[in-house]
Write a structure and sequence with these properties.
Length: about 140
């Protein structure tokens, strides 16, 4: 559990007030109270860091998040002040953007390595991405 109030650089300024949009929007209830995330329940943890099977209790809760999750960022009203980046090195991989669910089902390790060898997807790897896509497609 990450408690932002205990960060070593001092207290984090609280801009949230009484807003609970991120807490309310988190499909896995990973945000357990204001400024406290239980990382072991976070979609980003499950889809990037977890090496075992994703717990079945989370079936149907990932929407289409196969690698990481930004739901809390999408609902945060403070992010309306953000400015899009202009750094081409941070742009999405075109091959990734073109992938369909069927492409993910059919992709081979060889093709995955060619398309994503210099991508953050390598952290999860071929088997992890296949697991994530299959888990999302269950949607029970």
């Amino acid at each position: 559990i990450l408690d932002l109030e205990l960060e070593p650089d001092g207290p984090v300024k609280d801009y949230c007030g009484t807003c609970t949009r991120c807490i309310d929007a988190c499909p896995t209830q990973a945000i357990i109270k204001p400024q406290v995330v239980d990382g072991s329940k976070c979609i980003s943890y499950f889809t990037i860091e977890l090496r075992e099977a994703i717990p079945q209790q989370y079936t149907g809760q990932f929407e289409n998040w196969a690698f990481g999750c930004d739901i809390c960022q999408e609902v945060c009203p403070w992010n309306r002040f953000s400015v899009p980046h202009t750094d081409p090195d941070l742009s999405a991989n075109e091959a990734l953007l073109e992938m369909t669910a069927q492409d993910w089902i059919e992709i081979t390790d060889e093709i995955f390595q060619k398309k994503f060898s210099d991508s953050p997807l390598m952290r999860t790897g071929y088997e992890g991405m296949k697991r994530n896509v299959e888990f999302i497609l269950k949607r029970v």
